[in-house]
Amino acid sequence: MQKYLIFSVVFIAVFTMLQLVSGLFLTLLYTPKISWEKAATLPSHVELVGPNPLFSMAVSLISCGIAAWCTKWLVTRMGRMKK
Known about the structure:
rod-shaped; mainly alpha; 2 helices
């Protein structure tokens, strides 16, 4: 039960961190394609394209791998501390 709890907490933390970092990175790299001749007639709202499911799946799988490795590392370290 302890391993599942550790895995869940680490997974949520890593997933959240990766989503934030990738969101910041993608925002920094975004450049809108604007024709400046028509800029005065552009609408004031922005429509963003929906999320790419493959990107979300990749972030989930990377988070799962990191969480599994951290869980294994933490459990072995806790076992050494008890001895």
